[in-house]
Design goal:
This protein is of the alpha/beta class. Helices cover 45% and strands 8% of the residues. It contains 11 helices and 6 strands. 37% of the residues are buried.
């Protein structure tokens, strides 16, 4: 891709380099790292410098990384809101793959479809409705309890206790919540396995949301109202960029959790869309280190 002539591809190459190198280096100034990358871009690099596109050596993303986070950026925060899956535990644990496979199996059995066709339906529902369950409810009147019980029957030993993360969460001033599109039982089992369950005041799950998942705006409103959370004094940590659009609009600080080293081989391609949006304040691939940096 570094030898491409297309301006859009050049733009993508520079942005990818900025995000990856900025996160890994901790310099806080991606342009320093890009100097070393210039030879890899070849003609595309030189073409971009001759064009009217922003100079990759001086362009800066408005999204800040772990190395840029400071205590003053979160000094106003008293409400700490965390997504669960692929956020409180990292994506590379692959725990969610168990749920993903069981959702495919459920759709296959429920709709009497071959597994490959069921997979397509499942992912279509996930993207269009926010969760596979919501799609099944809207289009096939599925029993939500049966679905939730089946897909969350997984092996939680895939998660290792995370004492360091627990210490950082416990040290945060104010209240802490888990806000998940899964159910309470799943959140409790995962958080207990991580050793962090006792650090949270409550869990706002899909059932509490009336089975309407993020990113629906009414779900965030319900969470804020139920727990009397002041959005202006809150921060949300989430692994899906689209689920941070409403929190940002409500006045919350937003932190996107990405796979380590920005690996995009995990998850569906569309899940990576919007990572460079203005609704994201910070991006990190290490939640524990990020929390430590803002204390």
């Amino acid at each position: 891709p570094f030898s491409c002539r297309c301006s859009d591809e050049r733009r993508f190459c520079r942005k990818a380099a900025v995000m990856v190198i900025g996160i890994q280096s901790g310099t806080g100034d991606p342009s320093v790292c890009l100097t070393a990358l210039a030879p890899l871009f070849g003609d595309a690099w030189q073409g971009a410098r001759r064009s009217n596109l922003p100079d990759p050596m001086t362009a800066h993303s408005p999204i800040r990384q772990t190395a840029d986070a400071r205590p003053r950026d979160f000094a106003h925060v008293t409400e700490w809101v965390f997504d669960l899956d692929n956020t409180l535990y990292p994506r590379h644990t692959n725990l969610f793959s168990q749920i993903d496979q069981r959702m495919t199996a459920f759709v296959s059995d429920f709709l009497t479809l071959p597994k490959d066709e069921a997979r397509v339906v499942q992912k279509d529902f996930y993207r269009r409705y926010g969760t596979t369950l919501r799609g099944l409810m809207q289009e096939h009147d599925v029993d939500p309890d049966a679905f939730l019980q089946y897909v969350h029957d997984i092996d939680y030993s895939w998660l290792a206790p995370d004492t360091a993360l627990g210490d950082e969460i416990r040290a945060l001033p104010g209240r802490k919540f888990i806000f998940t599109n899964g159910d309470r039982g799943h959140a409790e089992r995962a958080a207990r396995q991580l050793g962090i369950l006792d650090h949270f005041e409550d869990i706002f799950d899909l059932v509490a949301a009336g089975l309407v998942p993020k990113p629906a705006s009414q779900t965030y409103d319900k969470f804020l109202g139920l727990h009397r959370v002041d959005a202006e004094r809150a921060v949300m940590f989430e692994d899906l960029a689209r689920n941070l659009e409403v929190p940002k609009a409500l006045g919350m600080r937003t932190v996107l959790i990405v796979p380590r080293n920005m690996e995009e081989s995990f998850g569906d391609v569309w899940e990576h869309e919007g990572r460079d949006g203005e609704h994201i304040d910070f991006v990190t691939d290490d939640l524990t280190t990020f929390l430590r940096s803002i204390r």
